[in-house]
Specification:
The structure is a homotetramer.
Chain A: H1 14-22, H2 35-48, E1 53-57, H3 60-71, E2 76-81, H4 85-88, H5 93-97, E3 102-106, H6 115-127, E4 134-141, H7 152-164, E5 168-173, H8 176-183, E6 196-200, E7 210-214, H9 223-229, H10 238-248, H11 252-273, E8 277-278, E9 286-290, H12 293-301, E10 307-308, E11 316-320, H13 327-342
Parallel strand pairs in A: 2-3, 2-4, 4-5, 5-6
Antiparallel strand pairs in A: 1-7, 6-7, 8-9, 9-11, 10-11
Helix pairs in contact in A: 1-10, 2-10, 8-11, 11-13, 12-13
Amino acid sequence: MMNFKSDNIVGVHPKIMAAILQANSGTEGSYGNDSYSLALKEKFCEIFETEVAIYLTSTGTAANSLALSALVPPYGGIYCHEHAHINTDEAGAPELFTGGAKLISVPGENGKLDVDYIRNHIEAANSLRPHISKPACISISQATEYGTIYQPDELKEIAELAKFYNLNLHMDGARFANSLVTLGVSPATWKSGVDAMSFGATKNGAMAAEAIIFFNPQDAIEFDYYHKRGGQMMSKMRFFACQLLAYLEDDLWLQNATHANSMAVALREIFAKHNIEIAYPVEANEVFVRLSPKISEYLYKNGGGFYEWGTPGCGLYRFVTSCFTDQKDLQLLDNCIKQCNVI
Amino acid sequence: MMNFKSDNIVGVHPKIMAAILQANSGTEGSYGNDSYSLALKEKFCEIFETEVAIYLTSTGTAANSLALSALVPPYGGIYCHEHAHINTDEAGAPELFTGGAKLISVPGENGKLDVDYIRNHIEAANSLRPHISKPACISISQATEYGTIYQPDELKEIAELAKFYNLNLHMDGARFANSLVTLGVSPATWKSGVDAMSFGATKNGAMAAEAIIFFNPQDAIEFDYYHKRGGQMMSKMRFFACQLLAYLEDDLWLQNATHANSMAVALREIFAKHNIEIAYPVEANEVFVRLSPKISEYLYKNGGGFYEWGTPGCGLYRFVTSCFTDQKDLQLLDNCIKQCNVI
Amino acid sequence: MMNFKSDNIVGVHPKIMAAILQANSGTEGSYGNDSYSLALKEKFCEIFETEVAIYLTSTGTAANSLALSALVPPYGGIYCHEHAHINTDEAGAPELFTGGAKLISVPGENGKLDVDYIRNHIEAANSLRPHISKPACISISQATEYGTIYQPDELKEIAELAKFYNLNLHMDGARFANSLVTLGVSPATWKSGVDAMSFGATKNGAMAAEAIIFFNPQDAIEFDYYHKRGGQMMSKMRFFACQLLAYLEDDLWLQNATHANSMAVALREIFAKHNIEIAYPVEANEVFVRLSPKISEYLYKNGGGFYEWGTPGCGLYRFVTSCFTDQKDLQLLDNCIKQCNVI
Amino acid sequence: MMNFKSDNIVGVHPKIMAAILQANSGTEGSYGNDSYSLALKEKFCEIFETEVAIYLTSTGTAANSLALSALVPPYGGIYCHEHAHINTDEAGAPELFTGGAKLISVPGENGKLDVDYIRNHIEAANSLRPHISKPACISISQATEYGTIYQPDELKEIAELAKFYNLNLHMDGARFANSLVTLGVSPATWKSGVDAMSFGATKNGAMAAEAIIFFNPQDAIEFDYYHKRGGQMMSKMRFFACQLLAYLEDDLWLQNATHANSMAVALREIFAKHNIEIAYPVEANEVFVRLSPKISEYLYKNGGGFYEWGTPGCGLYRFVTSCFTDQKDLQLLDNCIKQCNVI
């Protein structure tokens, strides 16, 4: 395999698959009224060091969109990075699930929000009320779409801004584990001011299991309605809950992320060795590089799996590692670049 | 087990679980670009005897709502039985996904649509255009919410009505297999005029796998957008496609349904033996009965799992069988009623 | 004129037109920040004997739909009569503006809600939460679509039900003035438990002016956003506010309604005299009768303007009077029926 | 008056008011089935030199949002300038009426779209289908939010791009007349490739009357449903149609616009005389200037009506002229700046 297209092209971690098998016994309450969901709720409260409300979804798009739908009114504005997944890769799902809330594209270096831009926009919006969508939420991705990570002080600055203007703070945590192991901090992002997060597991070893976590359960008192109405209340929910239980058990999630991140660092070293430009700091499990047409074409031709990113033809390429990436994958890529350079 | 609450409280059929395990090997394209999805598409074309377009979802609610969203404009009206699942059990999901289309409650005996009522409503709506939602779709459930089945001539009458007025015809097939084995007909409902269906597998042995089938692929040329935007384009789609492949392989779906239906007939016999009124013809895997408070309370107290149906206190109760229901379950229920009758 | 099609086929009352002319002078703040809107707000507070929040719209459909959008969550259920205007004559506007809330058709005699039906539905919905849309609002029409009127004790019963289950109570007052003059009560419906109403003026002499009235201004603290986003924040709002000011001035609204109602009673007497069946009590400005094909055709042929109501061919017909209807109109109709009866 | 806040703070042109008065006679069909609407339809066909479908609204926000709702699917993307009215001043109305379509902010000088940016985005979106909203429409404002005007060749370039990629082209013509008199071209924008436009009259002398014009009536065959459902089908439509009839009669609209534009030019000269920076070319009836805090505060204090534009504190200010602006207004402003400069 020399496939760095995404962390969702791989399969399921054996421990998670084992948990699915084990859950297949006897009857259980449906729609989340099962013993696995109950245990998972407790596990999440423990990990996040507070009482949380949790709801599972089968996709990250659903997790993000449903979470946002509970955090903003339909006339609300959601500040997100111009390259945020919710803004560019979910085909308008946030607009659908929120009933038409407005995503406001925010610029910012390295995939991180420009806080001043948001502040100015909020001020303008409030002064022109109600002609501009009501500033209602800031959504950040941790890690970002560019594989970078908000440092604690950066997160704090955004959280303070949100709090000052009475906005909710949402975190898209599709690659949350990858950011945690880099930062070496507690998962309890609510302490920094996050109100709700999309907690991803699929990209880090699960089959299909994402969780929406509300750190203030009061925000979620009617979320069961959103969940059901959003088509995400799976009837045999135990098979989704058990995935996350296994994912959290014995820090499997952190181990997987640690591995994926280290593979990304190794990948970066390979590119650097070949004098290929690294476009963004490598802080999680993604590496963005600028490839010459010669190299990109050679890699494609020789079975390399990866995507061009952004405007077609711009020369920026994304490589993603996962908990399954191994030294052999890296070796293959290294060799391929070498061969290309000698021809 | 004496649990007849639903066909979704049970686990996954061993053959389907084996298929999931087997799919967990190597990399595959994400979002449906995998070999399992490809094979499934071919299998469905074969079973339905025509070229179809298929999209998978993790819930039946999503399958129904997304299918409808492609069949009606947001200003459209959808005729459905007043007790249809889309009308009473999906928390407004069809309204969300269709962008606010209107579900029009249609009365009718045994859970089946009153065709004259629909015809009159369409005539009135068209004559008062545009003040009434545009008649756009008829949605039927096969089997119905009351475990009854549209006979071929009944289906034909509805299809002709739909065709005459240029409406689409949608079938909620959450228990489609159960209806097929009773009728002994081909699955090719498009020959009767069905335009799209929600093809359920979860209630009949799968883990979480439903398919939206478009019999006229032209209706689905942009459905990939609906699918993604609806939060249902699972990234590791292979694990959903493989469930349906195993489900269809060697007629497992029909065998499972045959078993569940036979258990329902046996259940009906037990109730009849005890002079308990059967509320609707038992044609699939559901039995509706009228229980006295004495019996219902006794059954509940002794571990019986089942739901009261409709208005609380009305005395109507639903019992559902599944591919896992066995003679012992029936025996336990029989004994329990006997004991109740002697005290 | 022998045109009883509706109370919206006539023009504008001279006093209201004069007010529009008079408002056309100098500059005024736009979007409701004008002196007329300010004065109107005060006038409404006086008439309703409490602090209210008001927002104007150009149609009754917008007034109803926007009001409801602030009273129910998108996953909410709205109980309304099966023949309510919001359910049958607004082409799905409530579904659009509420983001997909569900209108639940309630049966009931004479166009009035069956309270027991609603109670049972709420009980069932709450017990099956979240599978059924959350019971969120009851909407009544005063006068009803059939020209009947809720008596104070009937309104009280509904309001108590709403309060008991924590639902909002909305009143569609497209013909509110007509109901008031019949009942001879204060307009302060909030004392009976109404939370918000659509206050109609267009059908009773205005050009295009409806008001959404919130009796608990707390419900409307962000309604400016709904108003703007709903496309109803007219820039030159003074020309809408001045209509309502003139409408309320010197009880013009009540005088207009008194006249229209008295014409309806006279109309009823004409029908009764000719032994034509009156279908519903005549309590406002509408008369519903059952006409033989012979009479209905003769009337149509001789220039009679009126509509068949409900199912095409059912023989039920609606006649509406307005503040402009006069004795000559009635005389023409009387003569026409006489002529028909002798041929 | 020294009020340049907007062209909607003034009243109604006397000829339009006279038309309203004149329309107030006898009965007319409701909801657009009146003689005025019929005549207006013909007048528009004549002016636009082709068969058009027209629908009236009471606000420009409704006109834009409803027009777009017929031009894009709910999963569609709408390219518009980052400062377009639909993107920044309509509180999310386009998102509401389109069922959640995505507005994509496009940069560009002088309020005009950067065509290359759009082309690149479309290419990326199509290559990543269906993860990015489907490119469905380009919306331009003529004149733009900054009072500039697309020249024929600029419009042609955008239209060709739209056509090449099969997108619809919408024009927000809130100040369409102002652009026409500057360009001196025919109103028949469809010849340049515009599919539908919002035709504004309120800012140019009407009371409340905007028209949605479809140049390809096929696009509008079910628009009556959108119109009604959007709460914009005014019952006494004649009073809106007659405004537009008077507006178009004897080129009143062009005369009004010619006057407003000339006042803007005169305003620009005053600012230039005082060495105040003009921010954008003055091509319609808006002048944007950069004012020092001293001048802006002095003007505010002395009764000047105008708005700061964009980020609060940025120093950019907008002045708008209308068909009612006269030399005295300009003189007052000129004097005020003079006085400020000497203190």
